[in-house]
Amino acid sequence: MTMPLNRRMSVIIPTRNRGSSLKRLLDSLELATCPDGTAVEIIVINNHSTDSTPQILRQESTKERKYPIKILEHLKLGKAEALNLGLSETAGDLLLILDDDVLVDKFCLAQHVAAYKKSMFDAVQGRVLPGVDPDGRPADVSRLREYNIPLIDYGDAFCEIRGLTGTNMSIKREVYERVGSFDTRLGPGASGFSEDTEYSIRVGQAGFKIGYSPDAIVYHELNPERYGRSYNLNVQYRKGLSRSLYRHDSLWFRTVPGLIGNCLRYLIYSASGRRQKAYQTEGRIAKHCGYIAGKVQKQLLRHRRRP
Fold first, then answer.
1. Are the C-beta atoms of residues 89 and 41 closer than 8 Å to each other?
2. CA–CA distance from 81 to each of 112, 123, 142, 172 (Å)?
3. Contact (Cβ atoms closer than 8 angstroms) between residue 249 and residue 272
4. 275-305 vs 229-246: helix crossing angle, rounded to 10
5. 79, 54 contact by CB (below 8 A)
6. Which phi and psi (to 5°) does residue 232 adopt?
7. Residue among 146, 159, 288 at smallest CA distance from 214
8. Do 9 and 96 contact (CB within 8 A), yes or no?
9. How many whole angstroms separate alpha carbon 21 and alpha carbon 24?
């Protein structure tokens, strides 16, 4: 069933120690349009920030804003923890989750609303494109993977997809009420990643459809601290570690063969000078290693708990 024309939208933004980025996001939301008859509230959850974030939020709360802003404080670390608090405070029929280091396109909110009018989707993944770095420099398209940001671009057509990325995703209230909260073992501040991936799995298991909207666009900041090989290896390892908490892939029939295969491919790509292929493949190796390490840690904990 499609959503009614008049609705309420809640925008949920968990944040920690990204005061300047958050300020830019809030400024971009002031410029965003929404269809007549759609009420919008913005909920920012400060997850125990120690930088300028609290001061910036105090300043923002005193301004006259197009969309009212509600600020919540959550001292327990973890993006999933902050998301769950924010979701519990929402009044909207449509719940939009954004990362704190993106800028929304002027029509992003309107396009999330429109996606539910023109489709049978219950959850929508918006497009995530590269933005600029702190000095205003745009991305070098020849090295997008090396920026280590979650880019989402499935083309220019609406389509059904399997997963959601919390950088720019929306769900109907019905989905939240049935699927529930995010897994607090996962995500930044906990395992590091995959709180959105695990949530997507439960959305699909509950029988809901996930769609992609090409026009609901955000631009992800380029952060120089994320550039390059060492950061990528750490990210992929943490993704594998996170995956071990909610997936049950066979070590001997899937993970170990995958690790061996990728090691061989890495040697071939490195020897032939295929730098981008080698970069991607060593990331997959790190991810396999993280998954194996997570499963081994879990088995050791079980062994220690036995009488």
1. no
2. 24, 21, 36, 20
3. no
4. 40
5. no
6. -60, -45
7. 159
8. yes
9. 5
The residue assigned the tokens 């708990």 is 305
Q: Report the alpha-carbon distance of residue 209 to residue 174 in Å, rounded.
A: 12
Q: Is the pTM of this model over 0.90?
A: yes
Amino acid at 21: S
Q: Rounded to the nearest 10 degrees, what angle do helices 275-305 and 256-271 cross at? A: 150
Chain-centroid distance, C-alpha 161: 15
Look at residues 24, 82, 25 and name the one whose alpha carbon lies nearest to residue 49: 82
CA 199, 201, 202, 206 torsion-angle sign: positive
pLDDT in single tens digits along all 307 residues of the chain? 455 544 899 999 999 999 999 999 999 999 999 988 899 999 999 999 999 999 999 999 999 999 999 999 999 999 999 999 999 999 999 999 999 999 999 999 999 999 999 889 999 999 999 999 888 899 988 888 889 999 999 999 999 999 999 999 999 999 999 999 999 999 999 999 999 999 999 999 999 999 999 999 999 999 999 998 999 999 999 999 999 999 999 999 999 999 999 999 999 999 999 999 999 999 999 999 999 999 999 888 887 777 6
Give the up-direction half-sphere exposure of residue 238: CA atoms within 13 A in the CB hemisphere: 17
Q: Give me 295's structure tokens.
A: 């499963």
Produce one character per residue of 228-244: b if its CB has 16 or more CB atoms within 10 Å, e if not: eeeebbebbbbbbbbbb
How many residues in the chain?
307
Whole-angstrom Cα distance, residue 303 to residue 298? 9
Q: Are strands 123-130 and 102-104 parallel, antiparallel or unpaired?
A: unpaired
